[in-house]
Amino acid sequence: MRIRKMTDSRLRKEFELLNDQFFDNKILLNRVSFTRKLLPPGAMAAYFNLRKMILLDYRFMGFPKICTELLLHEMAHAYLDIQGYVGYPQDAGHGILFAVEIDR
Asked: What does the alpha-carbon distance between residue 39 and residue 54 come to, in Å, rounded to a whole number?
């Protein structure tokens, strides 16, 4: 079985599907794409609230299911950001409300 490599275009379409299915299309982003350099050290993906973008490490392009999981994780951050939730610095936004959102 051949796995189709994820591209920026496919990632954007996946974002649109997840946004519709789980977030009522409330997440508005300027960019959803792969990157080779703009992530914090050690991060596989990140949501940048001021620039309204989600970036994934390009090394995951060959793993579409992992891309979807990373994307959904970052979308949960974006959705909570819309609601004003920041979290605590020591948990990088992964506190109780984030856990509840992921469970949802």
From this structure: 10
Q: Which tokens is 82 given? A: 């819309």
Q: What is the DSSP string of 20-70?
A: HHHHTT----SEEEEESS-SPTT-SEEEETTTTEEEEEGGGTT-HHHHHHH
* Spatial distance between the Cα atoms of 90 and 104, rounded to a whole number of angstroms: 23
Name which of 65, 76, 64 is nearest 26 in CA terms.
Answer: 76
- Does residue 20 register a pLDDT over 70? yes
52-74 residues labelled b (16+ CB within 10 A) or e (exposed): ebbbbbeebbeebebbbebbbbb
The tokens for 20 are: 């519709």
- Summarize pLDDT for 34-83 with one digit per residue, the tens: 999 989 998 999 999 999 999 999 999 999 999 999 999 999 999 999 99
Q: Look at residue 14 and tell me whether its pLDDT is greater than 80.
A: yes
